[in-house]
Amino acid sequence: MRQHRRYDLRNHHYEGEEGALIPLLQRAQQEDGYLRRERLVAIHRRTGIPLAHIYGVATFYAQFRLKPVGKHLLRVCHGTACHVSGAVELSQAIEKHLGAAAGETTADGQYSIETVSCLGCCSLAPVMMIDQDTYGNLSPSNAIKVLKKRQKEERP
Description:
Blueprint: H1 21-32, H2 37-47, H3 51-60, E1 72-77, H4 80-84, H5 87-98, E2 111-116, E3 128-130, E4 133-135, H6 140-154
Parallel strand pairs: 1-2
Antiparallel strand pairs: 1-3, 3-4
Helix pairs in contact: 5-6
């Protein structure tokens, strides 16, 4: 029978707690904006948690990012209601307008685009969120209008 190894978290806020990896990753991402390789190696060295396990957790949970994100996070819902209401066309228009695909960040570093399974706004389908702002009942052209307006407002 395989025994589970207890990881050493001395001198850390989460010392001795089981399941400390996720809070450690959350803190690292909060401080750096994403999970830098150097930070993951430091967590490995400090805790003894195998690096492969750390990467496994970091890639399993959607909350974690291994690449820097743009100034703004643009999420397009692809849940059932949004999908049947035109989420694919919405995403295509956004990606074309911004010049970046889902999972990428625009060349200017302004927008990171994500597709998500649900934003919890099914009655407003199709929906996109930019940072904390939700836009619903969108057509591809309406989404582009929203983006153009926001981009114009940000220019000095």
